[in-house]
Design brief:
single chain; 646 residues; alpha/beta; Rossmann fold; 4 domains; six-stranded mixed sheet; 18 strands; 19% strand; globular
Length: 646
């Protein structure tokens, strides 16, 4: 069954055509991920579907009786209290509840037939209240609060006094509590930490209605979407499957289109050559038949619907990171770092050792101190205790979450040349690769959006001399093509990488280890995000099992001071991960030697595959060898991690 259908919709903003005859349909139960470059009309489409904006041409059909819920990127509920914002989702239920309470208070005053009628009305209202989920309101509210980490302390605060991230979570909670037939979510993963992201993904997979979500979070799209809507140049195309399946299907489709285009071009060239020959033969032999055949063939050529050349690559940033000379073997050493604000500790003896060419992602729950740690590394903040030491030859390039430039009155061109001296022509060629073209380079940097600022700062980093990159949420404000270009650039970067990111897909593509900031300390996990998350879930499950099976001791002892643990327990709480046994350490050493050997072989195989040329049989043999080696590496790594946690 079709939940909604759009046919030939056009939408203008002034003279700019944003949606150009867009046609699409959404089937009941779809989990539709909506993707496309910034400015392609995704948010405009959602506002039209939600009834918040009119369209200029075309038709919109919504299933009769279907209720639409819409989450904008920046929800605004003014001075309403957070509790009121959330409870607005229960408006109809709360109205029924008030009617029931009013009837209850009047029942004692009624007699005879009036009482009987009131009881009948009460029973009907109670049935309607129960059917609509009135008795589960509090349970639903608590579930949403817990999943999105909206504490009870928020409920009595004005919505306008919350931070942008807090407002986004409350707005998302309100939309989910409505439980509409069709959910329209515009960037729902913004400002969610990893636990809330995982919770939201499960919630949407289990959701009884239809879901459409605009998102740049490819991991989220893979986890939730059953179908993908790609928007480009004001039009849309529906693809089966999640984001990764869509990417594969699109590439295959483009290759097929390229083959058809090339075949048609060959046919056109052959027809044009034949027409030319026929005309020559007709002229040489003074034969009208040849001219008639040429004219007939020309008409066929004119009527032929010629294909446009397929665009095999997106118009994305063409990034190439430069690396200055290497730093020393030890790039960064953080020892026993302590820091906090207003007596509240964030870092409690954090240790971190980063070596040359390591690629680390720093993760942790919101508020644990990830950005604070970067500011300590940058020297903006001074630790209360402990030390931060950069290695010899280190040249650090920094990307902050909020990008600021030395002179906000400078143009983009001037700002870039301030840090990367070169001719204007060279600078403009480079800036064009970062999508700053033509007159754009003369914009003042003070007028740039967050995404434009990040692009310009990345442009400076790519053409500087850094051999260490420290990036704080580098994918913020970037659309998917720009993210993919950044990923490719970071994979080519020959230096050391340390970044804070919530983008799980991005982490999987770019790092070889994950560092978790937890309870003021840093814990390293080898592998990508998926490997880290699996180990984290296993650790949490072990902790839950231990709590369930733990038998209380000394139950009759005198009560302790609230919030104060026994000395032994307190010491344990500050300890790091358990140290592996001697036997486990021996096995880990052996595994490390095997891993080094297999990874060296993998590098040799990769080099051989790059040089194999057109020998398909040899390429297949090398591919099989690569797969076997990778399985050995994965198994050894899994065992190493298991021993480390033992």
């Amino acid at each position: 069954m079709i939940d909604l259908a759009v046919n030939g919709i056009k939408k203008y903003y002034g003279a700019e055509l944003v949606l150009d005859g867009l046609t699409m349909e959404v089937r009941r139960g779809d989990r539709m991920g909506v993707v496309g470059p910034n400015g392609c009309g995704k948010t405009t489409l959602f506002r039209i579907l939600a009834g918040l904006e009119p369209h200029d041409e075309g038709d919109l059909h919504l299933r009769r009786g279907a209720v639409v819920g819409y989450l904008p990127q920046t929800p605004d509920y003014g001075q309403q209290m957070v509790k009121e914002v959330l409870q607005e989702a229960f408006r109809d239920l709360l109205a029924l509840q008030e009617q029931l309470q009013a009837l209850e208070s009047n029942l004692a005053l009624l007699t005879d037939s009036r009482l009987e009628r009131a009881l009948q009305e009460y029973a009907q209202l109670q049935q309607a209240f129960e059917t609509a989920g009135g008795y589960s309101m509090q349970e639903r509210l608590e579930r949403i609060q817990q999943g999105l980490k909206i504490p009870d302390s928020f409920l009595e605060r004005p919505f306008a006094q919350l931070s942008g991230g807090e407002q986004s979570r409350v707005g998302l909670g309100r939309t989910l509590l409505q439980e509409p037939d069709i959910l329209l979510l515009d960037e729902p993963t913004n400002h969610l930490d990893l636990d809330s992201l995982a919770w939201l993904e499960q919630f949407l997979r289990d959701y009884a209605g239809t879901v459409l979500a605009i998102s740049h979070d490819r991991y989220f799209l893979d986890a939730v979407s059953s179908v993908t809507l790609e928007m480009q140049q004001g039009q849309a195309m529906r693809w089966p499957g999640n984001y990764s399946r869509f990417q594969l299907a699109k590439q295959e489709h483009l290759l097929q289109q390229q083959a058809l285009y090339e075949n048609q071009q060959k046919k056109v060239a052959a027809m044009e050559a034949a027409i030319k020959k026929l005309r020559i033969w007709g002229a040489q032999g003074d034969n009208e038949k040849f001219f008639k055949r040429a004219a007939s063939m020309e008409k066929r050529l004119e009527k032929m619907e010629t294909m446009d050349r397929p665009q095999l690559t997106e118009d994305a940033m063409a990034l190439r990171l430069q690396t200055s000379q290497r730093s020393g073997r030890d790039t960064l050493l953080v020892e026993q770092l302590h820091f906090g604000y207003d007596g509240q500790p964030l870092l409690r003896g954090a240790d971190l050792h980063v070596r040359w060419q390591e690629r680390l992602a720093l993760v942790g729950e919101n508020g644990t101190g990830k950005t604070t740690l970067l500011r300590l590394l940058q020297g903006v903040l001074t630790p209360h205790r402990g030390s931060v030491r950069w290695g010899s030859g280190v040249k650090v390039g920094w990307l902050d979450q909020v990008v600021r430039f030395a002179d906000e009155e400078h143009t983009i061109l001037e700002c870039f040349r301030d840090t990367c001296p070169m001719t204007e022509g060279q600078a403009r060629n480079i800036l064009a690769k970062f999508l700053f073209r033509n007159q754009d380079v003369f914009k003042k940097v003070g007028t740039l959006s967050g995404g434009e600022r990040s692009r310009l700062r990345l442009c400076q980093l790519m053409h500087g001399e850094a051999n260490v990159l420290v990036l704080d949420e580098p994918t913020n404000h970037l659309d998917i093509p720009a993210m993919e270009a950044l990923e490719e650039a970071l994979l080519d970067f020959g230096g050391t990488l340390l970044m804070v990111s919530h983008d799980r897909y991005f982490i999987n593509k770019t790092v070889d280890a994950v560092v978790e900031l937890r309870q003021g300390r840093l814990y390293r996990y080898l592998g990508d995000f998926d490997a880290y998350w699996l180990q984290r879930q296993e650790r949490l499950e072990r902790q839950r099992n231990q709590q369930r099976t733990q038998v209380p001791k000394n139950a009759q002892t005198a009560p302790k001071e609230p919030g104060k643990a026994p000395a032994k327990a307190s010491a344990k709480a500050g300890a790091k991960e358990a140290v592996p046994t001697r036997r486990a350490q021996q096995e880990m050493t052996q595994l490390e030697a095997e891993l080094a050997q297999w990874e060296a072989e993998l590098a040799d195989v990769a080099a051989a595959m790059n040089a194999v040329g057109a020998d398909a049989e040899e390429a297949l043999r090398l591919f099989g060898r690569q797969e076997m080696l990778q399985k050995q590496v994965d198994a050894a790594m899994a065992r190493w991690l298991e021993l480390q946690e033992s």
